[in-house]
Design goal:
Elements (H helix, E strand, L loop, with lengths): L8 E3 L4 E4 L10 E4 L2 H9 L6 H18 L1 E2 L2 E2 L1 H12 L6 H11 L6 H33 L5 E5 L14 H10 L3 E7 L6 H13 L3 E4 L4 H6 L5 E4 L3 E3 L4 E4 L2 H11 L3 E4 L5 E2 L16 H4 E2 L2 E2 L12 E4 L6 E4 L2 E5 L5 H13 L9 E6 L2 E5 L13 E5 L17 H10 L4 E5 L2 H10 L6 E6 L14 E7 L5 H14 L6 E4 L3 E6 L2 H21 L8 H6 L4
Parallel strand pairs: 6-7, 6-9, 7-8, 9-12, 10-13, 12-17, 24-25
Antiparallel strand pairs: 1-2, 2-3, 4-5, 10-11, 11-16, 14-15, 17-18, 19-20, 19-22, 20-21, 22-26, 23-24, 25-26
Helix pairs in contact: 1-2, 2-3, 2-4, 2-5, 3-4, 4-5, 5-6, 12-14, 13-15
């Protein structure tokens, strides 16, 4: 079997035929797998590996199970489903395995030939999908790194061995090479099982793509010394927020790439995206055997009984990923993520004294979720990694996350549930906070009317010359403040997109984060004018003119 011409997974009269990846690069030996147990063992032992490849192998396992549990033309569906569950559980981190098994199980009741037809359709799709994703990724890389031959770093193995055909990240390298855009590929050896050294170097040599092998720990130094223009990797699972589970060592590459301003591109099929999983914190990371670390090739490299930490994968936060590319093109881009913009505005507000210490928060809505600054963090040191994603419906965090949402999240979600706002800014500027404290009521919302100041035009009020700013009591239970705001906004659909909380600050919202920030700034400036002039209207009355001697 010549892997650059044929699929790495084929069906031969009831048997799955593939290459035993454990033997490469020195021995190309064929595996013929005819039972469910043999397929499970091959997946667990990494004879077959790579998220798309184990998915297709798992689907062939369901074909074998269906054949084994069919008698007189009748399929024992419960038995086949039980076997399918065993296959899907063979490796927990890569989502493609469970996805592929679920897909073909839907055809089990129709018989083994229907399951086989579905599996063969998946094989054909995989080739088309990989080529499309690889082409989109190559287009992106050339846009990000134009006008020069590229030095690309890659990790683990993402070629035909890891899929059924062409490859994902290596597929992108092949497309770039076809376009004459590759100067050199730096291949991480990928400890502890050396998939980069054994498999990727072998595939690149087969394809005639220039490459060098390096130890994993040299990758950051290669970036620091100008030897890397772009990092391209594959993925085993991509969560809804863009977090990426991939071979251990990927996270470190992403951190180094971010530090050195190098694009970090993830290439994977849509089947690797798990939109049912909110964040990477929920991914089960497979732990491999200690022997993979304490020895190699049958030779011990560590003292006997040495304890080992050997995760097969790590999870790279989405904010470190430049883009995720699938057959549909760019499906996630860090340029679109609001974390950096939120953090930048928070630091700006902190510098102005409007978000002192850990006070205040900023959020951006995305569908049923909102991204908001985490609780208990100095706004002067905030980064994109300090954001929390919450449900707009109930203010609770989405999945398990590194940061916790503030109690003031309820203020933001109250706005989102009653207004078509895309962003909310909640800050504590001195003039507005003072004015609303002096004019608020202790137990019910009230309003402060201001007229004829030019700044009213910047607040989004219906009347550009008059605004009634709602002021809410500051309850110790912040959720009660949120409930008051939600009730008021529901009952007053024409209320302006700004409000005050006595002793607590101001909240403004808008169609985007810049507009919300601008409205908050205008509100503070307006309150300063009111405080300095002592008037809530811009035009002086006759008595006021007489008092200041302007007659």
């Amino acid at each position: 079997m010549h892997l650059m011409d044929d699929s790495s997974l084929t069906w031969d009269d009831g048997v799955l035929v593939t290459i035993d990846q454990r033997g490469l690069p020195h021995e190309v030996r064929e595996l013929r797998l005819g039972t469910v147990d043999e397929i499970i063992d091959a997946i667990r032992a990494l004879a077959i590996r790579g998220a798309p490849a184990i998915g297709i192998a798992g689907a062939f396992g369901v074909v074998i199970a269906t054949r084994a549990h069919t008698a007189a033309g009748v399929v024992d569906v419960p038995r086949v489903r039980a076997e399918a569950e065993r296959i899907a559980d063979a490796r927990p981190t890569a989502v493609n395995l469970a996805w592929a098994v679920r897909r073909v199980v839907e055809r089990v009741a129709e018989g083994a030939e229907a399951v086989l037809a579905e599996t063969l359709a998946m094989v054909a799709e995989d080739s088309r999908v990989n080529r499309a994703a690889a082409t989109h990724a190559a287009d992106l890389v050339l846009r990000l790194c134009p006008d020069r031959p590229l030095r690309v770093l890659t990790h683990c193995n993402t070629g035909r061995l890891a899929t059924s055909a062409f490859g994902t990240a290596i597929g992108a390298l092949r497309v770039l090479a076809e376009r004459g855009a590759i100067e050199d590929v730096l291949v991480d050896e990928t400890r502890p099982l050396l998939q980069g050294a054994r498999l990727t170097a072998w595939e690149l040599a087969e394809a005639g793509i220039p490459h060098r092998l390096t130890i994993d720990s040299a990758a950051a130094w290669a970036m620091a010394t100008g030897q890397v223009d772009c990092v391209i990797v594959g993925a085993d699972r991509i969560t809804a927020n863009g977090d990426v589970a991939n071979k251990i060592g990927t996270y470190a590459l992403a951190l180094a790439a971010r530090h050195h301003g190098i694009p970090f591109i993830v290439v994977a099929p849509e089947s690797t995206r798990d939109t049912t999983m909110a964040t990477g914190a929920d991914i089960v990371v497979e732990q491999r055997a200690a022997a993979e670390v304490t020895g190699f090739g049958g030779v011990a490299t560590a003292p006997a009984n040495t304890r080992v930490f050997n995760p097969a994968f790590d999870v790279t936060p989405g904010e470190l990923v430049t883009a995720v590319v699938t057959e549909h093109g760019i499906v996630y881009s860090n340029e679109d993520a609001p974390g950096d913009e939120i953090a930048g505005i928070a630091r700006e507000m902190y510098a102005r004294g409007w978000m002192p210490g850990t006070a205040g928060n900023i959020s951006v809505r995305s569908g049923d979720h909102a991204v908001i600054t985490g609780s208990g963090l100095s706004k002067g040191e905030l980064t994109a990694a300090d954001m929390v994603t919450v449900h707009v419906g109930d203010s609770t965090p989405v999945g398990s996350q590194r940061r916790k949402p503030s109690a003031e999240t309820t203020i933001h979600t109250a706005v989102y549930r009653t207004r078509p706002a895309a962003a909310v800014v909640h800050i504590h500027p001195p003039y507005a906070t003072t004015l609303f404290t002096l004019n608020g009521a202790p137990d019910a919302p009230t309003t402060l009317r201001v007229t004829d100041f030019e700044l009213i035009k910047g607040l989004g009020a219906q009347d550009p010359a008059l605004i009634d700013i709602p002021i809410f009591p500051n309850w110790p239970d912040v959720a009660r403040i949120g409930a008051d705001i939600e009730r008021y906004l529901t009952e007053n659909p024409t209320a302006p997109p700004v409000l005050g909380i006595a002793g607590h600050g101001i909240t403004a919202w808008g169609d985007n984060l810049s507009q919300a920030r601008d409205r908050a700034e205008c509100l503070e400036a307006l309150c300063e004018l009111v405080a300095r002039t002592g008037r809530r209207h811009a035009f002086a009355t006759r008595n006021e003119i007489l008092e200041i001697g302007l007659t």
